[in-house]
Each structure stands twice: as C-alpha cells, then as structure tokens.
Write a structure and sequence with these properties.
mainly beta; two-stranded antiparallel ribbon
Length: 115
C-alpha cells in the first residue's frame, strides 16, 4: 500500500531513514496514509489516516520503462485501522525525480472491504 513520499535530500539514497517525515504525492489521490506521518520501521504498528487500497503485489518498474505497475486491487481498509508494517519498498518518483515514493506490505486482523 502507498504510504507517502519523501524529498530526496543529502545522502538519502533509496530507503529514507525511519522517522523521516512523509509528504503527500502529487494530486489529491495520494495523501500520506498512516499515523504517525513518518517513514515507519519493519514491525511497527501504525494507524491508517484514510481509506487505502490493498493490492496483491508490491509496485515495480519494468526494465526500460519509467512508470511503475501496481498489482490487482484486492480490497480496501478504512481509516483508523491498525496495521503492522511487514516490509518497505521505495521507488524514485518518475514524475518528479526529487522525491522517493514509499510503499509497504502490511498485516492486519481486519477484513478487507471488497473492490
């Protein structure tokens, strides 16, 4: 799921340090989705600040392409849901190379709302 993005500054390569503030993506459909609004660590418990889509695989960028591909939508989780961060993935924002997009694989006890 999408968490937010961070400004690529200083020595940040691809994985920003835990605690780095997250900022919204471009456009109103990419808000920061967790509370606290910082890059979490693996195993950290956080809460959703908005309804999010859950997909069947992490996004990836195919070779020789500039846009990432997301998996099929499995359903959604509502604002306020408690989740556990299992893994983090990052990608350079192809629409603005000054930013790194942050995604996560998550676990929750909640049932997904069907698509």
């Amino acid at each position: 799921m999408w968490l937010g993005r961070v400004k690529k500054e200083g020595n940040i390569k691809l994985m920003p340090p835990n605690g780095t503030p997250l900022i919204p993506g471009r456009g109103s459909n990419q808000p920061v989705t967790i509370i606290p609004e910082t890059v979490p660590s693996k195993g950290q418990k956080v809460y959703l600040s908005t309804t999010v889509n859950i997909r069947d695989m992490a996004p990836f960028i195919p070779p020789h392409q500039n846009q990432y591909i997301t998996g099929d939508r499995l359903g959604s989780l509502k604002s306020g849901t408690k989740i556990v961060i299992l893994d983090l993935q990052t990608h350079i924002d192809s629409s603005d190379l000054n930013y790194i997009m942050v995604w996560a694989s998550v676990w929750t006890q909640e049932v997904l709302t069907p698509p």
